[in-house]
Amino acid sequence: MKIIKDYLILGFVLFITVVVACSGDNNNEVEPAITVAKKEMDFSKTGGTDILSIKSNVSLEVTSNQGWCKVEPVASTSGTTFKYSIIVEANATTDERVAEVTIQGGSVVETVNVVQSAADALIVKKTSYQVRAEGETIAVELQATGDYQITINDEDWISKEGTRTLTDKTEKFIIAPNYLTGKRVGSITFVLADLTETISIEQEGMDIPAADKSGMDKDAVALVKDIYAGWNLGNTLEACTISGQDHFTWGSTTLANVNAGETLWRNPVVTQDLISTVKNAGFNAIRIPCAWYAHFEDEVNYTIKPEWLKRVREVVDYCYKEELYVILNVHWDTGWLENNCMEDVKDRVNKVQEILWTQIATYFRSYDEHLLFAGCNEPNADSVERMAVLKSYEQTFVNVVRATGGKNVYRNLIIQGPNTDIETTYNIFGSMPTDVVSNRLMAEVHYYTPWQFCGMTEDASWGKMFYYWGEGYHVEGSERNATWGEEGDMKVLFQKVKTQFVDHGIPVILGEYGVARRSNLTGSDLESHLKSRAYYNQYVTEQAKNYGLAPFYWDNGGDDFSLINRESNTIGDSQLWNAIMEGAKNGNYPY
Q1: Burial group, residue 171, by CB count within 10 angstroms (0-12, 13-18, 19+)
Q2: Mind listing the pLDDT tens digit for each residue in 210-224?
Q3: Which of 35, 89, 110, 198 could be a cystine partner for 103, CB 3.0 to 4.6 Å?
Q4: What positions carry a catalytic annotation?
């Protein structure tokens, strides 16, 4: 019995010991502690692997709630730092996606967001556009997941409007008016990484009215026979300057440094009273030198400002009210054409010539035969090679005007000789441009020979100014008498014009002539000079008509060439006016 009693006592002691021991373990239980190195992990669209480090004092269970995001344990040398590979597959969708990685240790739970960017997306809602000839702005709607590049494919009639921000969902493009007769097609390409979207743009050409011969009865010869005497509205509508340089160099001049305006060269605004004064003075034709490039809205689409077209039309209408013939040209105009008769810029100049004259011809298409167009002014071509380039510009001018239809099919057009110099024209001009109608082209030359008398304002190393010109008008003993370029030389030159053009049924416009008044002279010297100057202008006017050239006196409104006083709208130089009118009366066209 005693043995049994002892075992019972020992068992009770052991039980108490175990209970106590167990009670001691509960009091010393470890509290789970988990620290995650990063709470968010970012992956690109291509996916990949990254390590997630976790400090923990308990064992862990790490899982992902998305099949494209896998978790694998990585061996670690630390007893308290656990490492797991987060393996993300490539994202083929266009949406960003998120997986949640759960870390559980005992009663503690932590989460890590795995964020993966979307695959590139570039979607253009509409891929083709039909645009009116008048032009418009198109809005291209698109979706994109990143920044993209825009390329307008070799078309300068399409331009981007404004700048885009990444939050925009449309891109706007300005489609310039198509003044040409045929359709044109362009495209715009969007590129995002290896994704490409292209839209096509097809623009209609202008509607071309049928040929209209009403009011266009006179061919070139008949019309020139009707010109009694012509006058230039000089230094007015062609007034423009280029800031910061002496001459135009193609590609380096922008509209930002071009100044243009009717009064820029100190002549007043043209009024109906001025034109009426010219008519009342005996002139029945006016040449309007005009600038256009200087009045473009931009150098991308070459669109003439509407307000400038309107103003030019007002001046033309002043002339029409007086039933005058009107020559409208492209004058120096920053030299974009005149200084660029060169092969390396030929294509671009021809393009501007085409777009410019399409606008002018279309705008004035309804005007009758009293309006004539001249393709340029004094184009600088002094070689056969440059003449060939100039010929392309002149052919473009003719083709474009005819293509606008209506009365322009029959309008008389004027073609300039190289430098509008008689000798150079005789030597290298060659033939007139081809034309779809017969006998509607005229040639143009200018006459300031000898320059030492007509235009030189100070002596030069190669020669001195002439003050006196013509038989019976020299001043005895003066070194300022003309020594060349007098009556006989004039007749020789005018005969060349007659032989080259007039004898072949091509009438000629003498677009400019005149003599600068030498206001530095006084007394008898000035008196002799002015008599000689009057005689020169009378003789040119008369002989020009005799040889088949319609004379247009160059009046720039200044002290040197002025005939009409534009402030008072009166004849400002009666001596000069009488001389020109006498020459016009005495001259007779050989038609």
Answers
A1: buried
A2: 999 999 999 999 999
A3: 110
A4: 378, 512
